[in-house]
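Quarterly update from the structural biology core.
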Amino acid sequence: MTILVTGSAGFIGFHLSRRLLERGDTVVGLDSLNSYYDPKLKASRLAILEAHKGYRHAKLDLADRDGVPALFAEVKPERVVNLAAQAGVRYSLESPETYVDSNVVGFLNILEGCRAVQPKHLVFASTSSVYGNHNNLPFNVHDAATHPITLYAATKLANESMAHSYAHLFGIPATGFRFFTVYGPWGRPDMALFKFTDAILKGQPIDVYGEGRMQRDFTYVDDIVDGLVAALDRPPVANPAWNSETPDPATSAAPWRILNLGASRRVELMRYIEVLEEKLGRKATINLMPMQPGDVARTEADTAETRAVLDYAPSTTVDVGVGRFVDWYREYYGV
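Predicted structure, tokenized:
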């Protein structure tokens, strides 16, 4: 089938697009190839995708009110996966307008495109950041997430609500995935694993926030892609048991749902760094820093619902996943 993947030259979008192409789908990739991080890395990912005859690329900004609807009208995708977004919690403190343009205006353009062509399923990226300072671990989709503490998280929570309104009004089946700290080969240079690896290999110190005590549900990118692919072929239906007097935040009387995608295990940041040191064969010089604005102390995904709906079974441990990242990094950068 024909699948539109936005953010196809990005980290997760690249891995998903490659998986879909390998299984025989036609992929139309949308990516503006902006300079938020090294465009050469995006170009390298794109070159791999363009080597597949089933791939077509549209260099387009998601916020383009004319270009995005025109692409939908031309392609008429059967499935849509929206992974394009301005990412990063900390950068949202510096450039809030960028987040509204990409994550809110851009997502509205996606929804309007879906309204026009009626794909069988819209899958879109949300984030574990929507839980904010929620202290009930593991984070459960059936618990209300109403207090985001960064603009980035607020835009993603808005995406969930916007998709619900279009599912209710126009019957567009939509699944939103709350991703938990994704890592792996071809990752983003602004993420901790990439930054730590670069600094350690250069003999430079690394800044470790939260004094290293933060815990994250680090999730390997292939496990994320497993969930996305499983969802594509299983669009949601209205929950017949949904009750407006005791509303379930994760389902609806419309064909809409929210699911967590995580490894369902917490790893302390210092342990993550220890694994990286083992794989690199070098010790890090560590600067322990206080928590930054917008950071949370702990995250962990409750994936019981995801397992039940999609047979989701993440299996990659941090030891394996970090090792694969290091192998890729050394090969790609020749270090």
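The radius of gyration is 19 Å.
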